[in-house]
What we know:
The chain is an alpha/beta fold. The chain has 12 helices and 19 strands. Helix 2 links the parallel strand 4 and strand 5. The longest helix is centred in the N-terminal third of the chain and has 14 residues.
Amino acid sequence: xxxxxxxxVIVAAGSGTRFGSGVHKQFLRLHGIPIIEWSINAxxxxxxxxxxxxxxxxxxxxxxxxxxxxxxxxxxxxxxxxQDSVLAGLEALDSSSNVLIxxxxxxxxxxxxxxxxxxxxxxxxxxxPVIPIRDTVKKVTSSSLVSGTVSRNNLRMSQTPQGFIxxxxxxxxxxxxxxxxxxxxxxxAGFEVLAVAGEPGNMKLTDPEDLMIMESLSGGSMxxxxxxxxxxxxxxxxxxxxxxxxxxxxxxxxxxxxxxxAVLHAVSDALLSAARLGDIGVLFPPDDDRxxxxxxxxxxxxxxxxxxxxxxxxxxxxxxxxxxxPKISPIRYVMINRIADIVDTExxxxxxxxxxxxxLGDIGKGKGLGCMVMAxxxxxxxxxxxxxx
Length: 389
Ligand code: MG
């Protein structure tokens, strides 16, 4: 088999079902990872695959806030019908002679299904993964009366990826009438399509309940870690006050080599600790002039890139600010939203609370501020080495 001769088109163009969350279902998160990236990671694990094109909804602004395509993944806007979207994806492939076409809504596709389909294409030129129907199939009239029982011996349910020789599917789809899937277009054009083994776990995300089933199906391969961070900085008059990446009106700020944002420093150390990637002092040494007066939000963004680069996703950040000034509860949600923005996760995964030392020590005398953070991160163990850059 020619190395890297396979291309993948992942169809994520659908915009109909949103489960009331405002997010297209293909960009919802499963264990903290966007649905679409589960498929991308599955295909990236196959050596012969050289390029991946994701067909997105036409309105870029609609999806860009939910998903940032990893480097090396091409995106292209879809068309009105599924087949127009697929065609746009096929035409965006540069270097492939064979193609796998996959629904973004099937995030749990396994490498064995992908391999089955690839082998089917090599043997027969076109292949579709199928699974048997387990339940008895009934015909029902419009008034809900059972009118017959259908033999399921010759019936199968089809899945994706469907695999084809690129030039064949391109030619067929260009001329096709309205079809349900690419396989149907090939069938009606007279091509043989081989049915290969799919898997029940390669389910399609259709209803909100499916997401829960998928969580439990895929949960076994998740690795979760916890890290803590602790930081203190003294107050100094005449400098701006930054905590949690927010500028607070004040006559004094936190002194330090950077902007002194003890909250973001503690978040940074908690994440680095959980990911075993060092600590903020090692990554951004205080004696390095590059970080003098540095914006801690920018440092934390760099740290999150490193953490994500190892395949981790942020599941929870719990922040305790130890101070009498400023009072935390009135600015809690401002800080939560700002931190969520910096670390690129949902605000629902973050909590911020304040406490005091009850007059004990220098913090109790108003000389400074401390912060303690617990962070929890998770990644799929089977994609850990691939990462999501
Ligand atoms: Mg610090």
